[in-house]
UniProtKB/TrEMBL annotation:
This is Chaperone protein DnaK. The keyword Ribonucleoprotein does not apply. Belongs to the heat shock protein 70 family. NCBIfam families: PRK00290.1 (NF001413).
Length: 539
């Protein structure tokens, strides 16, 4: 089916669901999983008898095995242990999070074993890889994987590591909104400025692109990597749980892991129903036991109006991010020709209404919100591996999503390359010494949005020695940042007088050492499916 050429796949590794696609006979198409579904839940579990489960079969047993069922791993990948997002997740997730060996990254305890988040994501990727191999009837080893545009270097590297653990050569990491725009413009002669509003299960991305003559020029990105459908579900679930507690003498169903998972699933379903209906029912018989040991049942009607009231601030945050993205990019709303809605949460009428009100125009419905990102990734993969198979090869011009700079005196952060700078790029700034007769300087490379260096992420550091002794402020040092089209950052420092030079290539860390990554790549004892994808739920 791949026409005798090595197939390449595009993968949208989502918070709630993942999608795999490929270009077949010149057209991008979504590849169904082995159960015949186009969406694969991004859920991994270890059943009570020790079998590894991925996708729909893992989701079906989540209620009875919540503490060993991992969902929303994308919200944790590449995060630092102790960060605000991780601490928030620890309060609401039914499974246990633990720090990595050095206390840097996040790990998951599942089935009595501790897994790096990258390995959890790798299990989902391996399942999609197996689906593609079943579709093509041959091995698949090359892929393009998408990430939120606002992911930092560590999160991108962690996603790439997950691909490597799954046995994939990741040709490129592509921003999700850019990928969506690529699918939207495929085969069309467009010349317009487009905004992609991408609200999925766990993240919000807003990207502005100039599309013309098959060139996709990203002029601005913004987002929130901890804002998505999971938050809407939780708001509704909390409201239902609180009304249940008020009705039953303060019994909080959220304290029971099985009840919490049932409540989460019912809230998600009700939220989806409310996109089409004015009201929905949440019915959970035998939810928990009361103080007297008798079973308590939950039966409650929720309305679209109530959901909109509960999540008004979340919708406002979406519009605030959108407004900030346009202002940072210097783009007026009147310049935007089309707004694409991407991600399952954009099915919510209130989201559509907010976007419509902000831009003053009806958003485009010309793309499938949950499939378009994977389709764009498939097109990019085909362009990288088999460009001759495409009628015209797309050119992506991306930008840096975060400010890049160095630590300066007083603990401040000085930006060298501002966010939304098109890559590849090279920028040089002149710095100087802060002490008399200083003969060396430490260059600490950071990324982030804060003026305080310690609130940003340290990417790497090095020392430039052999500087000419002089009074402070007299020595001039050129610090140059170079970013390639693949996002590889190199930083160099040069003393104009002595000619001393020092440099590093900044390699983002995902929390895994090279040795651990290689061990995980070779191990993959979970690679073969434990049960048939459409089989019975194990117990």
């Amino acid at each position: 089916m791949s026409g005798g050429q090595e197939p390449v796949i595009g993968i949208d590794l989502g918070t709630s669901n993942s999608v795999v696609a490929a270009v077949v006979d010149g057209q991008p198409r979504v590849i169904p999983n082995r159960a015949g579904q186009l969406l694969t839940p991004s859920i991994v579990a270890v059943s009570r008898n020790g079998k590894r489960l991925v996708g729909g079969i893992a989701k079906r047993q989540a209620i009875t095995n919540a503490e060993n069922t991992v969902h929303a791993a994308k919200r944790l990948i590449g995060r630092r242990w102790g960060s605000r997002e991780v601490e928030d997740a620890r309060k609401v997730l039914p499974y246990e999070l633990v720090p990595g060996p050095d206390g840097f990254d996040v790990r998951v305890r599942m089935g009595g074993q501790v897994y790096p988040v990258q390995e959890i994501s790798a299990m989902v990727l391996a399942e999609l890889k197996a689906d593609a191999e079943a579709f093509f009837g041959e091995p698949v080893t090359k892929a393009v994987i998408t990430v939120p545009a606002y992911f930092n270097d560590g999160q991108r590297q962690a996603t790439k590591d997950a691909g490597a653990i799954a046995g994939l050569e990741v040709l490129r990491i592509v921003n999700e909104p850019t990928s969506a725009a690529l699918a939207y413009g495929f085969g069309r002669q467009l010349d317009k400025k487009v905004v992609v509003f991408d609200l999925g299960g766990g993240t919000l991305d807003v990207s502005i692109l100039d599309i013309g003559k098959n060139v996709y020029d990203v002029v601005g990105v913004g987002g929130d990597t901890y804002l998505g459908g999971e938050d809407f579900d939780r708001r509704l679930g909390d409201a239902v749980a609180e009304s249940f507690a008020a009705e039953h003498g303060g019994v909080d169903a959220r304290q029971d892991k099985m009840a919490l998972q049932r409540l989460r699933d019912a809230s998600e379903k009700a939220k989806c129903d409310l996109s089409a209906l004015p009201s929905a029912s949440v019915s959970l018989p035998f939810l928990v036991a009361g103080p007297d040991g008798k079973a308590l049942h939950l039966e409650r009607q929720v309305t679209r109006e109530e959901l909109e009231r509960l999540t008004r601030d979340l919708v406002d945050r979406c519009i605030d991010v959108t407004d900030r993205t346009l202002r940072d990019a210097g783009v007026r709303r009147s310049e935007v020709a089309e707004v694409l809605l991407v991600g399952g949460m954009t099915r919510m009428p209130r989201i559509q209404a907010a976007v419509r009100a902000y831009f003053g125009r009806e958003p485009s419905r010309g793309v499938h919100p949950e499939e378009v990102v994977a389709l764009g990734a498939a097109i990019q993969g085909q362009a990288l591996l088999h460009p001759e198979q495409l009628a015209s090869e797309p050119l992506l011009l991306d930008v840096t999503p975060q400010n890049l700079g160095i630590l300066v005196a007083g603990g401040y952060f000085r930006t060298v390359i501002p966010r939304n700078t098109t890559v590849p790029t090279s920028q040089t700034h002149v710095f100087t010494t802060v002490q008399d007769n200083q003969t060396a300087v430490r260059i600490a490379v950071l990324q982030g949005a804060s003026e305080k260096a310690d609130e940003n992420e340290l990417l790497g550091e090095f020392v430039l020695a052999g500087i000419r002794p002089a009074r402070r402020g007299e020595v001039q040092i050129d610090v140059t940042f170079d970013i390639t089209a693949d996002g590889i950052l190199g930083v160099s420092a040069y003393d104009r007088v002595t000619g001393q030079r020092q440099s590093i290539q900044v390699t983002a860390t995902s929390g895994l050492s090279e040795e651990e990554l290689e061990t995980l790549r070779e191990r993959r004892d979970w690679e073969l499916p434990a049960v048939a994808p459409g089989g019975e739920d194990p117990t």
